[in-house]
Amino acid sequence: MESDGTKSSAQQRLKGKVAIITGGARGIGAAAVKLFALNGAHVIVADVLDELGINLANSIGGRYIHCDVSKEADMESAVKLALAWKGHLDVIYNNAGTSGADGSITNINMDEVKNIVAVNLYGVVHGIKHAARAMIEGQRGGSIICTSSSAAIMGGLASHAYTMSKGAVMSMIKSAACELGAHGIRVNCISPHGVPTDMLIGGYRRFLGDIAAEEVSKLSAKSCSLLSGRGGTTEDVAAAALFLATEEAGFITGHNLVIDGGYTQASTSMTHMYLDQKLVK
């Protein structure tokens, strides 16, 4: 991505804004990094995948920091980097996450549960805590965005531990929005479904063997949307994050924006009743 030439042709919806994106080295995070930068933001890529993160940050004229979100000190350092670099923080996208702890609740591995909660929930709390401090001090308001999941809405879509952690994120943004609104800080979350990231592909492979990424995309398009032939993409989720980061969403807070092609809203198992019976015969 060529930062100068590409940025000049974008709408610049985040011009001059400073943003931190955790889990920003690949997948949904990387798509958001590119889109935010395209729209004029100064972006800090926070991740544990150093080589990927450094290369991406360099390509968009941003900054990279090694950040394990489960460690509060790492998250605090990411916020301090933003303040040292540009003097303020406008947006944080708490996107980093992990999965695992598959299997029956009767045999659940508690060490795996603790790891998932440490990243998916504590990591979000760390991000909200330190971003809110900086935003309150800066007196510029701000947008805090967190990643939840369709698994927090419906059972049977992920492991018990993952489902629990993402459900807690959905609750957390509501209470944080309630407190931080007094400072002009909006707190929202995004719930993707069926997006073929490395994490989703890895989940399929744990049960189906060495399934190709292309096949996962096909399965996603087939079973994860009410839109025929249309599966979710990382760019779909990044676009939702961009919207919540902009002033276009200035009156939206405490909201869960679901990116699922309608999957969690309806079942297609009885759609034959919508067919014109005259045509069927």
CATH domain topology = Rossmann fold
Shape: globular
- SSE class: alpha/beta
CATH superfamily: NAD(P)-binding Rossmann-like Domain
Helical segment tally?
10
What CATH architecture do you see? 3-Layer(aba) Sandwich
Read across the widest sheet, the strand sequence of neighbours is 3-2-1-4-5-6-7
The Rg value, from CA coordinates, equals: 19 Å
* Name of the CATH first level: Alpha Beta
Distance between the terminal alpha carbons, to the nearest Å? Answer: 54 Å
Helix content: 40-55%
The string of secondary-structure elements, in order, is: HEHEHEHEHEHEHHHEH
Runs with pLDDT <50, length 5+? 1-9
Whole-number total of structural domains = 1
Question: What does it look like?
Answer:
The protein has one domain: Rossmann fold (3-Layer(aba) Sandwich). The longest helix is centred in the middle third of the chain and has 29 residues. The radius of gyration is 19 Å and the shape is globular. Helix 2 packs across helix 9, helix 4 packs parallel to helix 5 and helix 5 runs parallel beside helix 6. It is α/β, with parallel strands linked by helices. The N terminus is likely disordered. The protein has ten helices and seven strands. Strands 3-2-1-4-5-6-7 form a seven-stranded parallel sheet, with helices on both faces. Strand 4, helix 5 and strand 5 form a beta-alpha-beta unit. Helix content is 47%, strand content 13%. It starts with a helix and ends with a helix.
What are the SSEs and their pairings?
Layout: H1 3-8, E1 18-22, H2 27-38, E2 42-47, H3 50-59, E3 63-66, H4 72-86, E4 91-94, H5 110-138, E5 142-147, H6 160-180, E6 185-192, H7 198-208, H8 213-223, H9 234-245, E7 256-259, H10 277-280
Parallel strand pairs: 1-2, 1-4, 2-3, 4-5, 5-6, 6-7
Helix pairs in contact: 2-9, 4-5, 5-6
